[in-house]
Amino acid sequence: MDTLKELLVPKAFNKYSHFAVVSIWFVMGATFLGIFIEVENTEPRFDFRCGGAKTENIDLVRGKCFRQYMKQYNKYGVPIYGFVIINFCLIAAVYAVYSQIVKNTVNVLSSSTRNGDPESQSGDQENKNSKGKQLFIAYCCQLSTRLVLGVLSMILQTQLLYPLEFSYTFDCYLPSRTNQPRNSSDATQNSAFHECSNQRSEKKTFWMNAILVVNGIFVAGILIETIYIMSRACIEKKFMKNSKFLETHLNPSHGKSHQKPQRQEERIEQVSQQLRVPENCSTRGELHLEPQRQDDVVQPQPHEREHRPTQVELHSEPQRQDDVASREREHRATQIESHQEPQRQDDVFPLQPRDEIESHQEPQKPNRRSGHDDVPLTQREPEQLQNSNLQRFIAKTKEIIQEDAQNLFELQSPFLGNPGEQTAVKHLTLDQIYTNLTVINDRDTYDFTEDRQEQLKVYPRSRKGESQPKGLEDLLTDKSKKVLVVGRPGIGKTLCCIKLLRDWAFDDVFKATSNAETHFDAAFFVKFRRFNSTDVLNLRELLIQSEHFPPDHLDDKVWKYILQHPKRVIILFDGFDEFKHDAKIVQSPPRPNVEQKMPLRILYHCLVHGKLLKDASIVTTTRPTALPSIRRLPFDKICEILGFSTEQIEEYVYKFTGDDKQAGETLWRHINSNMNLLSLCYIPMNSFIVCSSLFQILQFESSAGVTLPSKLTEIYNIAVKVFYFRHTKEFRDTDFTREHFESDELSLDVEEKFEKLGRVAFEGIKEGKLILEGNEVRGMEDSALFHRLPDRKTSALKHERQFCFIHLTMQEFFAARHLANNTSETELRNFVSENIKNGKWQLVFQFLAGLMEDKVQLPSEIITDLLPVKTEMKESADYNEEWTENEDKMVTCWPTEDERDLAHLAEAINNNNCQLRTLNLAFNDISDIGAQHLAEAINNNNCQLRTLNLAFNDISHIGAQHLAEAINNNNCQLRMLNLSFNNISDIGAQHLAEAINNNNNCQLHTLNLAFNDISHIGAQHLAEAINDNNCQLRMLNLEENNISDIGAQHLAEAINNNNCQLRTLNLTANNISDIGAQHLAKAINNNNCQLRTLNLSHNKNITKAGRRHVHNLLSKSQSKCELIL
Fold first, then answer.
1. 176 touches 190 (CB < 8 A)
2. Same domain, yes or no, for 618 and 674?
3. Among 799, 832, 849, which residue terminates a domain?
4. Which among 989, 988, 1060, 1054 has a CA at the least distance from the CA of 1023?
5. In this structure, is residue 378 part of a structural domain?
6. How do residues 417-452 score in pLDDT, each as one tens digit?
7. What is the pLDDT of residues 530-564, one digit of tens each?
8. Residue 72: which domain range?
């Protein structure tokens, strides 16, 4: 909608014309398009009927007769929906082109007239814009173009392309061989008559007439408007001028907004006339202007400048300042300062908006407007910035922000190597990586369920149904000037503030335009952690010490401007929780002075209360832990940053990789398939850490041809330290090296704190508590790894503090760390054996297995020894690589039916000593992440797995891609893969197809993709694969999918090729009709086809006639293929 509004500028149109285009024309166009697309799809199949044909040939007769019908009623073959698109889009394009052509002119005129009559504004460009006729000419051109296109469309519709009425009945004549395809010897001499009917004809006629009526109404409206403006232009020549045309025709209400400044100018002229003295007056009463030096001009007192920066000075003899002041009080509505010598620009004091007048005594043109002496105009708002000191201050501030706030320390890779080392690190810029955050009003609450998967979904939830400001600029309005932004550590509070500053510095937000509700001339960024709570300073000193402040630029004139125009000032206070000593806000003086020095906490209190810079915008960011200290401050709005939704995480990942699209797809696929990582990335800092870690792994292992692994423990081991060091107060300004993050050695102080965190995390999981009470985290409340929740009300007068880890997986990692560091081997064996079937410890044990790899005293066999070792012998046709209809094969399955629940843990652990040949994981809840773990296992050269059954799980195209990458690896020895009853779709089929035809690496012989919602698109990819001489596939099961005749045709072309080695193809219960069956029958009738079994049973669209035709075709062939219909 914003793009449409940008293309069709409302000010460029008459309000009725704009309403007609946006609200009617586009709606009608979309309606007609939908109707005729539906007609095009359904008419030949359901609405066109023919009699006189045999049952087996009725579809063929109907098709041929419909083609005759279309040739008669649509002789040029232009589909009606195509005509609708052209008809409505051409008119819309004319609107858009015209709008873009006149946009600049309209904006300039709107900006000028905002402060007065556009024709009276100074500047050649403004005069040219207001007095020219370009706007009138362009508007007339677009009217005439639309008129011609509308008439032309009506002529084409009625005279050339389509009839006025579509007939219901139609007589169709076909050669008689249509009815008797086999036995007629004189088929070419006789014709058969068929009486056909089109049940859609009346509806088509009605809607075609509706298009004609709509076009006619719009043409009539255009013609009326054209006559009106041309007649008015003939009567009133000024009507064609840009300003007049904009004011009276395009935007009549626009002129009303100019009446107030025009009346002010009229009052100025009346006061000016009262001050003038006729030339023939007596010498005694004559007032004359004497040249004065600038130094002689009486300057106003400071208290007078606040309200009347410039004054009237007319005299016939030297006057006292008291007389001048008396004259001013007599004419308070307007003050005029007149002197013959021009003042230096530096000495001109900034004016109050729209209230005062300044006139320089320089040569003026007589009779400029009304024939009287020239009267100075009301100073427009942008001219207040003419003061050179102020301009230099603003320009320098923006320049510093543009330079300093691009390459931030927070966005430097944690894996930066030493100088001279060629490391594949990824440094980011703010503009490159910044992604809008999800922000809601007030505080958010969390409802943690007992289901772990649902608990993970709590974090990166999409908030489409709630208010989602795109940035902090959306929070600031005239009614909301004091804003508090709450967010947990790493959620992006500081980056939000810096992004707001950069946008202001580049004039992307808060710019002084004609329609801007809020704009700022000065912006200050104050970080609380830079100040000590005992510091005593005044407001001016505080602003000078702000971030990105230009040195030596806050001179007296700029300072005075800030004090007089606080509405144009924004101050960003970042990190109140980092204020040293955690000083609570105390009561401030009732009426403080701007020069008065006071502690920062009191100074901040005065700013939020409006006792200093009353109308300034104040934005404060803080963690929830510091909220009690500022609970009494009167904020206009309180918001919480929730972080990223799933969609925003995806956007962040692709921004991270930049132009490397393949790396972006790999990283996003990996994160999206792992719910633990995806959920963790809702915090922007975690997204940065995870992407940086995975990018490092990808760059290192891609050179060795290894796919991206799921090394959760390694990633979390680094992520925890990076997050903790970068968001803990005492380490915020410390430059840590790569070795600090990669090493397992921590300082004694940090190790002690991690031990406390581990103990709290372990006890919380053990007791099933994700929300912790205040006494449980005593002494660790300010930890970067905790998030303070809204207090819980325990009684009418009591509240209890609540905390939680910033993410569930962080708690699970610290619990695993606690087990690894504080339990003996015997204790750990007992604990794991007792809880290995408990789902809440699943990820804890996975982290534990990873942590124990580096611990000699705790071997990883503690967990792997507990995997199920039982197997069972059973007969099943599912595992026969040379699958036929009624043949079973004896296989060994693992795990057994009674220990199937242990497969959840097995899928997450890669045991290099595993000697299994067949793995049956059917009927589990395996998702894409499980498929990824299995893919990594079968990718290992120690894995001896030959058969993998993943039927009846929850695997999508993402999991299919992981498996495809695995079987494409030369280490994989898999022969049979069963993915039936999943949801891999066409995309998953494409990934698998690319794998099975790749360079003889894939040894897969049997692929079962039944019940996977595969259409003709997926069938085409698979057909291209089995047609390749690299493909070793012998059996392909595509039962119960959505493959149509097009897909059947692609498969037929594949098995018709001598490269195809397929022996069994199962297409049971698809959407194949007689046409597809004939394609396949012709293919297996070919000598090149090596197929032995083709199953087409339960395809309801194959008719009896189609079956007979296929059997007749195969009865004359030498094919050895068994066809099941």
1. yes
2. no
3. 849
4. 1054
5. no
6. 566 565 556 678 888 888 888 888 877 766 555 565
7. 886 667 889 998 998 888 888 766 788 889 999 99
8. 1-111+127-176+192-250
